[in-house]
Amino acid sequence: MSVITISRKMGSDGFYIGEELAKKIGYKFVDKYAISDIMREYGFSKFKNIYERVPSFWERYDEVRDLTINFLAEVILAVANHGNVVIVGRGSFGVLDQYSDVINIRIKAALATRVHRIMEKFNLTELEAKNKIAANDKVRRSFVESDLRFNFHDTQEFDLMIDTSLVPPDMAVEWLYQVYKETQGKRDDYRPLVKDVKIDQVLKKHVTEILGRLKTKK
């Protein structure tokens, strides 16, 4: 029972790597839609709008926004407590860094590689792809640094970093699978286990129900 988080930049193929790794291991793949479903069913529905744009000055002090961000962290913790999951994005690497049964992975790629992939994926010009990536990077950085209070560029938060400009995505999946087999998803240290964290029972029930709807492919 363990947790793997995948942090990535647009065009790095991190989503694909996380999804394929989850299939290979037989874990649930938890993306923003699963997280949003849990939050919505538990009473919050504003996370999508909060995450997908940079907040104004006054919005940073909005109580509802703060409550939602705090609840997001609570949901991520509850999902991790469920175990046997690969969580992509949502700042999960920072929320879960203090636990020894969590491996944090960062997937990156050179800007030129990212631009090329986004051009192909969305049929964009080079300039359009660059602008799309820049806007996405800005929003992600704002969310991680302004809302979750983590350093977006701090590599110490991650156990492994893979550059898919050099390592093909499918090879990255295989490497991470080998790491998982060797470690069984546990760091060799004395930090607490996320599986031992006490979770609100109502939230735990919602997490179990939502994750139960996700297909586990192997």
Provide a short characterization of the protein structure.
It contains nine helices and five strands, in the order E-H-E-H-H-H-E-H-E-H-H-E-H-H. It has 218 residues and is of the alpha/beta class.
State the major sheet: 5 strands, parallel
The level 1 CATH classification is: Alpha Beta
Number of helices: 9
Structural class by helix and strand composition:
alpha/beta
Number of domains: 1
Beta content comes to 5-15%
> Which percent range fits the helix content?
40-55%
Residue stretches low in confidence (pLDDT < 50, at least 5 long) are: none
* Span of the ends, CA to CA: 16 Å
Q: What quaternary form is this?
A: single chain
CATH superfamily: P-loop containing nucleotide triphosphate hydrolases
Would you write up a description of this structure?
By secondary structure, the chain is α/β, with parallel strands linked by helices. The chain has one domain: P-loop containing nucleotide triphosphate hydrolases (Rossmann fold, 3-Layer(aba) Sandwich), CATH 3.40.50.300. The chain is built from 9 helices and 5 strands. Helix 2 crosses helix 9, helix 4 packs across helix 9 and helix 6 crosses helix 7. The longest helix is centred in the middle third of the chain and has 22 residues. The radius of gyration is 17 Å and the shape is globular.
